[in-house]
Inverse folding.
């Protein structure tokens, strides 16, 4: 195939994928609206609706009751609403105090403060960090989840959108690993980026977990332990 032909084919496939993703996100937005939350201001860094609805499904059908999230936002509201439906709780770790306050206010407005708490945890050096990047204070994180058997971990922070921060989210799994329940799920968002792809590969090599990479269905990767049901759009 010529260079021009290859370029055209790639462009067409890219547009088809973009259209498919838009359709999935539209459908997911309709499903999420059924949870009855008020209007929520989506940001450019928020998880895609199709990823969020998949996490809601994961919580409901697999009864994920103890949930830890790295990086708070719109997803925190939806995770908390689903957790409330199964008698669960959410701990969301956030490094930005102002953003944490905003998310906490939204949780309060939705009557979900009894389900979720947003903890402000500063970024610092971590023994598990790659490339000298910083991560949430691991001692504070460990204290926050001490005694818990975590059923679901959602990794969507800290910020990792630049080359020097590409591997900033790696420490999440080694830090929470001792606290995971025998039957759990681990999710990493933004799997379309090379940094997150490298992280997933290293997580698999280090832990023996197997991740499903769903770049075209929400842009996340997920690994599960033991028996589980699968339900997504």
């Amino acid at each position: 195939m010529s260079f021009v032909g290859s370029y055209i084919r790639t462009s067409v496939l890219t547009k088809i994928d973009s259209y498919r993703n838009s359709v999935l996100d539209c459908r997911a937005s309709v499903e999420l609206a059924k949870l009855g939350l008020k209007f929520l201001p989506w940001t450019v860094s928020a998880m895609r609706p199709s990823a969020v609805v998949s996490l809601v499904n994961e919580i409901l059908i697999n009864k994920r009751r103890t949930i830890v999230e790295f990086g708070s936002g719109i997803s925190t509201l939806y995770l908390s609403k689903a957790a409330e439906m199964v008698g669960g709780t959410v701990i969301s770790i956030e490094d930005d105090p102002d953003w944490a306050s905003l998310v906490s206010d939204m949780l309060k407005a939705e009557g979900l403060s009894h389900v979720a708490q947003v903890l402000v945890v500063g970024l610092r050096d971590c023994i598990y960090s790659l490339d000298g990047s910083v991560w949430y204070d691991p001692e504070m994180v460990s204290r926050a989840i001490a005694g818990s058997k975590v059923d679901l971990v959602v990794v969507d922070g800290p910020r990792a959108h630049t080359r020097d921060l590409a591997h900033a989210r790696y420490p999440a799994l080694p830090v929470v690993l001792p606290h995971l329940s025998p039957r759990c799920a681990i999710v990493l968002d933004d799997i379309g980026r090379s940094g997150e792809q490298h992280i997933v590969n290293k997580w698999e090599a280090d832990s023996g977990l197997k991740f499903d990479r769903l770049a075209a269905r929400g842009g996340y990767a997920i690994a599960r332990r033991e028996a589980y049901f699968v339900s997504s759009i």
